[in-house]
Every structure is written in structure tokens, then in C-alpha cells.
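Handout, section B. The chain below has 200 residues.
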Amino acid sequence: MQKDGYIYVSIDSRGTPAPKGTAWRHSIYKKVGILNIHDQYEAAKKVVAWPFVDKNRVAVWGWSGGGSTTLNLMFQHPDVYKTGIAVAAVANFLTYDNVYQERYMGLPTDPDNTYKTASPLSHAGGLEGNLLVIHGSGDDNVHYQNAEMLINELIKHDKIFSFMEFPNRTHALSEGEGTSKFLAHLYTHYLQQHCPAGAK
């Protein structure tokens, strides 16, 4: 797709396992879904200021935690992000594996917990752009209830979106003949349709 004229940008938010020291790594504590969203947005504003970038055709995509980030960016910052593809996303941080979530977010019973504030579900009403949500109904990591909660929240706010369920597929979405190829075609087609490449 790069040959079609898409510009790819990958940004390290604070907290990523980059060799940038303890303060960088620990800054994300109780701020997953908050601090990283802020960092991605601030960096994206710089990118869209480049003269060769079309600010009306900015897309974001991610899988798992990246899917959650995609949702938060689409819901909270529609001024920058126009198209999003969220695969196997955690919509409600209270539903995720406590071994991971509590390590980075503390306990849900903490008086200063940020689970609700950080969850994409809390911001679904802010959707303005094109959103494709993809989830396997047999997801063994980010349970399928996340997709159902998100769908209900988007319906409640009368937000139009696209959804693709992969029956009985796990978090990897790799089971079943033709699945990987179909998945690649699905999000490629969605991106080309809603965020076409090429100079104007």
C-alpha cells in the first residue's frame, strides 16, 4: 500500500518498552488509555501540519491494545483522525485480564482508579469519522463482550460504524481457511474506500 501513496507513521507514546529509561516506562501507571492517547494526538497534530500531508485523510489502526488506542483516538480526537480500524480491541478496561490491567492501572477499587475514564466505551459518543470494528467471537484474550458493549454504546449514541465478526476465531484471528487473507483484504478495502491514497 505504500506504493499507492500512503504515508506510514509509527509513534512511541510514553510507557512503551523503548530504551528510554525508568521514568518513561513508569509514567503510564494508571494512565493507560489517557497518557498514550494524549501523546499520539499531540504527535499527529505535528504530522498533519507537514505540507505534504492531507489532514482530511488521516487514518489510524491497531490490534488488541492498539485497537483500544484506535477507538480512543477516533472518539476523543475526531479533529485529526478521520478513519479507524480497530481489531480485537478492549472497549472496557474492567473486562480485561487482571494480571495485565492491574499491573498498569492499579486496582479497580483504588479511590483514584481511572478504569472508566481510560476506557474507549466512555467516549464512544464522540465518534465522527469512519470506523471499522473487527472481533473474533471466540477471542481468548479480549473477550467478545467488549465488542458487544461497544456496539451497544455506539447504537445508544446513534453513531454509524461498520462491524465484522469472525465466528469462533481467537485473538489471533488466524483460524479457518482463508481467514488471514480475507482479513487483510477487508481492512485494505476499508482504508482504500474511506481514506483513498494519492496526491491531490
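Note. The domain at 2-194 is CATH 3.40.50.1820 (Rossmann fold). Compare this with the example in section A.
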